[in-house]
Amino acid sequence: MQISILDQSPVPPGQTSKQALDDTIELARMADELGCTRFWITEHHDLDGIAGSVPEVLLPLIGSRTNTIRIGTGAVLLPHYKPFKAAEIHNMLATLFPERVDIGIGRAPGGSAEAANALSDNFLQNAGKMRELTRELLQFLEDNYPSPNPHAPLSASPVPDKAPVPWMLGTSAKSALLAAEQGTAYAFAAFMSDKKPAEIIQQYRDHFTSGKLVEKPNVITAVSVVCAPESKEAERIADKTCRWNVKKDSTAPLTKEEERQFEAMKAKMIIGSPREVKIQLEDCQQQFGADEIMLFSSIPSPEERKQSFRLIAEIMMEDKRKKGRT
Q1: What's residue 145's pLDDT?
Q2: Among 7, 30, 95, 259, which has the minimal tally of Cβ within 10 Å of its Cβ?
């Protein structure tokens, strides 16, 4: 099983945004050393407790401080941007870090309506044109964009020897079918969805049309995970994590609606010791039909978040090495 990490640079109480971003870079270095497949960072805007807002600034730092792990946006929120600019950014990254760059494509606003309006005057209109925006982006990444002037074709320079790999991110059949139609890889955010992943992933595979940059179906399922040396400790961390996400004030009691959000969030988590988590991840991969599992965690403590990822990666890589010797 391939293991990857998605990180949003959470800012816990008592920590600065600078510290949170440094923690993300350090986490990427650890993931690289442990042999994880890829490390993606999110794009969120004006959200309390999250520092990850501009992936294109943070990714070059991560790329320069790692060696082999793939790096990428999870996701660039395309309705906010012109496809040409998004292609230029990721082509630049792919030129600096050859054969290591992914471009995750998403249609969510990434924050409040006010933040969406500040980023784009017509977000809803652009979101409705996701198919056209995606096609235009892919044409730029393929370096074959048709220009109105045949003597001056557009090129999203610098054009790398190996283009960024496009991934459509989503939580429903709509995104899966768009990925299949456009010929991109597909990442299903199971930790954000109430839909059944297996059915949606199968729709993607059934309808996939080979693209220039992705020749065959490729699926990531992203799951929320909390791992600790012992099960009880993992449960404690999971409770603390859910509460922090629902209500940043740790002293105030939860309302009934917040309690409902707490329970819903925890129900989507995989929680346990390394061996328990490994079994659950293998079950997810088999049930969902995913090629790769991406680990997500919003544990507020950077030490506990890093420990969680490390324990999972170590046990998965340990079993992989054992199989390689047999």
Answers
A1: 75
A2: 259
Do the beta carbons of residue 299 and residue 237 sit within 8 Å?
Answer: yes
Judged by DSSP in three states, 177 sits in helix
CA pair distance 275, 270, nearest whole angstrom: 12
Q: What angle do CA 317, 322, 325 make, to 5 degrees?
A: 130
The whole-angstrom separation of Cα 127 and Cα 125 is 5
3-class state of residue 222 by DSSP? strand
The single-letter code of the amino acid at 145 is Y
Q: CA 41, CA 55: separation in Å to the nearest integer?
A: 6
Q: What share of the chain is helix, strand, coil (3-state, %, to 5)?
A: 50, 15, 35
Instruction: Report pLDDT for 144.
Output: 84
Report yes or no on 104 lying in a domain.
yes
Q: Which residues of the chain have pLDDT under 50?
A: none
Domain count, the chain: 1
pLDDT of res. 149: 64
Residue with tokens 């309390």: 48
CA–CA gap between residue 245 and residue 278 (Å, rounded): 25
CATH classification of the domain holding 174: 3.20.20.30
Predicted confidence at residue 319, as pLDDT, reads 63
Domain range holding 99? 2-224+289-325
The H or E element containing residue 95 is: helix 83-96
Contact criterion met (CB below 8 Å) for 87 and 140: yes
Asked if residue 155 belongs to a domain, the reply is yes
Residue 256 sits at φ, ψ, to 5 deg, of -60, -40
In a domain, 77, yes or no: yes
282 domain-assigned: no
> Scanning the structure block, which residue is given the tokens 């996939």?
208
Contact call for residues 43 and 53 (beta carbons, < 8 A): yes
User: CA nearest 198: which of 107, 289, 98?
Assistant: 289
